[in-house]
Structures are given as structure tokens and as C-alpha cells.
Amino acid sequence: MPSNLVDWAVNPEGDVNRYRVYRASSCAGPFTVLATVTHPQSSYLDTAPLIPTSAYKITAIDTENFESSFSNCIAYTIPDPPPPDPPAPGAVAVRQAVYGGLNIASYTWATAPLSASTVVVFLFWRGDVTCILSDSRGNTYTDCGSGRVARPGDGYAQAFYAKSITGGSASVTATFSGGGATFMYMALVEVTGIHTLTPIDEYASGTASSGTFVTTNTFSPTSTNGAIIAFADCSGTTLRDQIGGVNATTLLTIDEVTAIVEGILFTSSPGSNITARANTPTEMISGVILAVALQTEQTVPVVPPVLQTLLPATASIAEGAQQSFTATLDIFPTAIETASIEVLWGGGFTGIGATAPASITFSPTSKTASFLVTGLTNGYATVSVAYRGVTKIAVLTIEDPIVLPPVTALPIAKSARVAADTLSLWTDYLL
Q1: What global pTM score does this model have?
Q2: What Cα–Cα distance (Å) separates residue 49 from each residue in 1, 5, 362?
Q3: In 3D, which of 422, 424, 351 has the Cα closest to residue 12?
Q4: CB 183 within 8 A of CB 254
Q5: In sequence order, which residues have a C-beta less than 8 Å from that of residue 167 and are 6 or more positions away?
Q6: 83, 88, 90, 264: least buried by Cβ within 10 Å?
Q7: Is 40 exposed, middle or buried (0-12, 13-18, 19+ CB in 10 A)?
Q8: What does the domain layout of the chain look like in residue ranges?
Q9: Which fold has domain 4-82+303-408+418-427?
Q10: How much is the average pLDDT of 401-406?
């Protein structure tokens, strides 16, 4: 069960009978009694339903029922839960490829696309204007690579994608700014089984103003499972695309076959420094080609989870006291992870009576882990937590009681008992 463990230093007065634990939604209060704990017990496990922020204060009560003033306040705020993992990709398939129609700026899918699919839209238009895409489902369309690509002399081509779409019947609309397009069409391709967060692996483009083919710049897909979709529009009839030297499958022909959309699906590396190429039977005067590589897995190196926080970063505590530490991960783990703890001693002294666990464990349901170092004697200790090659260090200075009295030995009046000045909180709250 989610819980907070409230821990405090024992009051040194000989007639202390019990402690009262108060809780509020913030340190500003108001505080209400949560529990009463019999001395010398100095902790309380709060298993009541947790609120967004739990603030705690402690008082001490003596044998004559005199109650002290409040201790310092300590609060814990429940962290936001991690986002859910994206759906696992399945087998890659081109579900549909459609021609949006000549000089039609809005197209309604004849077959409603599926939720979580990836949609790639290729556009060609004439007129020195810019284009944005939208649809009636509220899906977001992003440029695949380098914006609009000028076909020599007469127009522009551009590729957009929408990831992990909200499926269903929808119209896709091209809106031009800076004036209207004098000629345009769009080609839409729905692909299933693609990574829902980072669908784009590589992008390439190319143009030609002569010759019988147009070729993209080289690209090297990093995924070993995915698809490459190519679009070409040439002034002469476009016969076929080749991708990486392999004849691609025709998905769509456009505008009396002067434009074509083709693709390949692959389950092993398609190679490195490859190109997409469109051939024409006669000499062309203008040509453009775009290629988009889609991936099923995220191949961009993922930064491993590292320790974000080791609290307290520095601390000064009394000899023999106990100190609570909390380590926090900045990336939520997806499997059980273990962080090792090492306590190093310095100050030229011996006889250290400290204890600490050998390790702390992070699990898929916890983002923080807390641990105690106890029984510290005069000098200093260095506590380090190592996790996946990253180490965070906290230094404790243990005060000599001769130089500085323990913080728990504050003078108090019988009519106004003062609880322990040091109040610590550690949590096993499960997200």
C-alpha cells in the first residue's frame, strides 16, 4: 500500500511519554492529529490514503500531558505518474495508398485509417507558396525532412507525416499561405506497424533538370525492420522507382502516370548510403523525388536512466543520529534496476558504528528509493549511489558534540516541550 514513513530524533527529556503526529495538505496547515506514538518509538508509517501533498509536524507530550510546540515541517508531494508505454509495433504493412485528386485541396479517406497508424502525405503544387496540413480528426502533420523541395522551374514537392494517428473517417486538408496554388495534388499512404513515437528513420530528396532519371541524396536507414516510401514527379512518364538498387512496388500512379508512389518493406537492413531513383523513358526537363524511411523500433540511442537527485546533497547531523537519503531517477525504468550504495569514512578516526543497506532497488512501480545511514560518529562520511555507471555523492559532516551540541538537545521549558528539531521523511510511495 502506498505509504510515507515519518522519522524523527528521540526527544532527550526523561519524562517524555509520547509523540503526536500531525498531517496537513501543506506546511501552511491547518494540521490535524494523525496518530499518537509511545516514546521511545520515533517513527510512524502513514498508510492512510495519500493526498497530493502530505505535510507533517511532530509534538512531544510528557507524563503530565504537557505538549510541546510543533517541530519543523516536512512535506512530500506525490510525483506525476509516468506516461504509459507506447503500443508495441506490429508487422509493417502499407494498408492503403490513395490519390487525393487533381487540384483538390481536401480529401476524405475512402477507407478510414486505423488508430496508431502512420500516415505519409506527399504533395506537389505550383506557385511560390507554403503548405500546412491538417485533418478533421485533429492529427498533427509534420514535415518529414527539409521542407518544400523545388522541382526545377515549375513547382514544389513536400512530404509530411502524422504519427500514431487517431483513426476513423477523416478529411485531410492542404492550406496554402502566401497566395493560392495554381496546380496541386496529394498522395496519401497509410502504414501500420510503425513506431508510434519516432516513426521517421531517414529522409532524402533530389531533383533533376535533364537526363532520364532523378535520384535522391544517399541515406542509411538504421532500423532493420520498416518501410521506405518514395514519391517522384517528372516531366516525362515515370516508369519505376528503385530503392537501394531494388525495384520497388508501385503503390500509386498519379496524373496520367507522370508521378508515382512506390515502396519497399524490409525485415533486415536495406543497406547504407543507398538512394531512391526514378526512371523516365525520355529526356526530362524537370524532376523531383522524395524518400521517407519508416522504422518499427526507435533506433536513436536512448539515454539510459541516471540518478537525478541524491538528497540531502550536504548535511550536518549530530553524532549517533540517523540520516535519511532519497535517490531519484530522471527516466522511469521499465524493469527492475538496482543502485549500489557505498559509504566511505574520513576524518582520521576509527570505530565507526554506521550501518547502511548494500543496495537500494528501483522497480517499475517506484521512481524513488530511500535509505538510512545510522550510528554516525564524529567526522564525516561520503555516501555514493552508483547507477548504470553514473554516481551521485552526498557528504555528511558529523558534528562533535563537544563543539556543537546535538540538535536534539535543545533547552526546553516544561510548559512548552519542543519536539526533535530534525524531522526526516522517506517514502515507499508506489506510483
Answers
A1: 0.53
A2: 9, 13, 22
A3: 422
A4: no
A5: 112, 113, 114, 115, 116, 117, 137
A6: 83
A7: exposed
A8: 4-82+303-408+418-427, 93-295
A9: Immunoglobulin-like (2.60.40)
A10: 37
